[in-house]
Amino acid sequence: MLQRLQDLLKTSTTEFKRVPSPANGKNGNGRHYHRHPRFRGGCRLAAMRALSGARLVSEQDMSPAEAADWTGSNHNYIAAMLTIIASNDSVLLTSVLEGKVPVLVAAAQVEGLVRLLTAFAAASAETKVAFGETVGVETLFDTAIAPNIAKAAE
After folding, report:
1. How much of the chain exceeds pLDDT 70, in percent?
2. Is residue 15 predicted with pLDDT exceeding 70?
């Protein structure tokens, strides 16, 4: 019986081709299948980890790198989330947590605003007066105050 099977294998004309297994989670057509869930309870997990890390940085005085180790996030994501939080834009923060806007994109959008708010808060009254004189009261009113009055009237 064994001899017969060996003879069959030697005389077989059927060639078996080895099908390569997908490497790195790719199935050969360019699509990547994630091994872990990206959302839970309607929230993007990476954004939630970054928010937790940002809270550790602000409340526990950790560095972003230490907070990244504690939360499993990335220190760049945590720094970006700190920027988003500093902007005081709750709508943007909600959009980031829901996964509608990526963390790094949202931080880039509000980075200038955060720098302006930080500089304004740190400036003395004399510096603010000098700023108003340099920019011009009309320009300051037309570009910063009037649009907010119109927005509040809506």
Report:
1. 78
2. no
Note the pTM of the prediction, 2 decimals.
Answer: 0.71
Same domain for 117 and 129, yes or no, is no
Over residues 109-137, the pLDDT tens digits come to 999 999 999 999 999 999 999 999 999 98
- Going by C-alpha positions, the residue among 91, 94, 97, 100 that lies closest to residue 47 is 97
How far CA 13 is from CA of 34, 68, 96, in Å, comes to 40, 58, 59
Helix, strand, coil shares of the chain as percentages rounded to 5?
65, 5, 30
Q: In terms of residue numbers, what domain contains 128?
A: 123-154
Written as one letter, the residue type at 131 is: F
48 neighbors 59 (Cβ within 8 angstroms): no
Is residue 53 exposed (0-12), middle (13-18) or buried (19+ Cβ within 10 Å)?
buried
* 93 lies in the same domain as 108: yes
